[in-house]
Amino acid sequence: MVIFDANMILRYLLNDNAEMAEKAENYLNQDTVTVTIEVIAEVVYVLKGVYHMTRKTIADTLKDFLLLVQCRDRETVNIALETYGNENLDFVDCVLYGYHKVERMEVATFDKKLLNLLNGY
Q1: What's the mean per-residue pLDDT of the chain?
Q2: CATH value at residue 97
């Protein structure tokens, strides 16, 4: 099993360095690849902050990528990405919302936008 870091995912998704993108693709084709929520969060921030992708594009791109890999918290990440694509919240807040939805965890926050989402407004 191989765990991808943010750079490996970014080179694969962006294909901005052919050699690196090919190496990432080889891993995807030959090994069982896993990713973590923390790495997905870093990828989200880079795609938004450096590459200025829209929230919807980021969410859709990463949801498609998740079909190629293993992720321990897949359902939570998918909810977080869906929420990120549709709401004006930081990705980490969307992850907290995902944990709330999937694992029924109570989220303690003072963030009004997150509270509104958690309370269904």
Answers
A1: 97
A2: 3.40.50
Task: Express as a percent the part of the chain with pLDDT over 70.
Answer: 100
The structural domain count of the chain equals 1
Q: Hey, is 25 helix, strand or coil? A: helix
What is the domain extent for residue 14? 2-118
Backbone angles phi, psi at 34, to 5 degrees: -125, 155
**Per-residue confidence (pLDDT) for residue 75, from 0 to 100:** 97
Q: What is the DSSP string of 59-117?
A: HHHHHHHHTTSEETTHHHHHHHHHHHHHSSS-HHHHHHHHHHHHH--------HHHHHH
Phi, then psi, of 62 in degrees rounded to 5:
-75, -30
**pTM greater than the 0.90 cutoff:** yes
